[in-house]
Write a structure and sequence with these properties.
The chain has helices at about 15-25, 35-40, 100-105, 115-125, 150-165, 205-210, 225-230; strands at about 5, 15, 50, 65, 140, 170-175, 180-185, 190-195, 215-220. The protein is an alpha+beta fold and about 240 residues long. It folds into 2 domains: about 5-125, Cytochrome c-like domain (Cytochrome Bc1 Complex, Chain D, domain 2); about 140-230, no CATH class.
């Protein structure tokens, strides 16, 4: 985790997620436990997967302990009259709390300083998602950019992430003018196609095709999904 990070719902304010983890794991709540006691972390999705009647002391029925890996998607929500929110469902089981600072101000947390609230928010917003950052990252390669430093750097980074097992690396576009899907094979350092007798190709060969007029979009996808997304069903193209 970084030493400090800006808080999206508090412009100009930065907080330390490392300090926030300490608060998260050691603050004794009014229920007698800690945040980390139910929202399992390091590693984990942020949930012990248990159904509890405690919640934050405000629930009227049992709820499953929520995961925390999607908290970053719920920021910038406002319930103020006339306010416009570009994203965010809201926090707590019913989405009725418009921020992590407001959530940690609830009675179950007891007395807690604003510094500790901001630090804990910073920690929760960088909670492990279970998906590598390279998943979903893509770059379209054309004759105009394929040999540029940024394009080659991105391509090599995605290949290294695939070699590490964090992603599958696929490519979609054309090879010699025909639409193809390709899957990077880290063990052999080449790209397999779904067309019989076509390929595999090395990065250098694909670069040559692109320089000659083909276009490919490379993208990191979840491990195990590359065959389905890139080459399954493409055998008859």
């Amino acid at each position: 985790m970084p030493n400090a990070m800006p808080l999206p719902d508090k412009p100009g304010v930065s907080a330390n997620p490392n300090d926030g983890k300490t608060v998260f794991d050691t603050l004794t709540l009014q229920t007698g436990g800690t945040c980390g006691g139910c929202h399992a972390d390091n590693p984990g999705t942020g949930s012990n997967l248990q159904v509890s009647v405690l919640g934050h002391g405000q629930g009227s029925q049992p709820f499953k302990t929520t995961q925390l890996r999607d908290l970053y998607q719920k920021t910038n929500l406002s319930f103020q009259p006339g306010a416009m929110s570009v994203n965010g469902y809201g926090f707590d089981h019913d989405g009725a709390v418009d921020g992590l600072i407001a959530l940690s101000s609830g009675p179950v947390f007891g007395p807690i300083s604003i510094t500790d609230k901001e630090s804990m928010e910073a920690y929760e917003l960088c909670f492990e998602t279970g998906i590598a950052p390279a998943v979903g990252y893509s770059r379209t390669l054309t004759s105009g950019n394929v040999t540029s430093g940024p394009a080659q750097s991105d391509w090599n980074t995605l290949q290294s992430q695939a070699a590490a097992g964090n992603i599958d690396l696929i490519a979609q576009g054309t090879i010699q003018g025909r639409i193809q899907g390709l899957l990077y094979q880290p063990a052999s350092n080449n790209y397999q196609t779904g067309t019989a007798a076509l390929g595999p190709f090395t990065l250098a060969q694909l670069t040559g095709f692109i320089q000659a007029g083909d276009t490919l979009t490379i993208m990191g996808v979840p491990p195990g999904s590359g065959v389905r997304m890139a080459i399954s069903g493409s055998e008859n193209r």
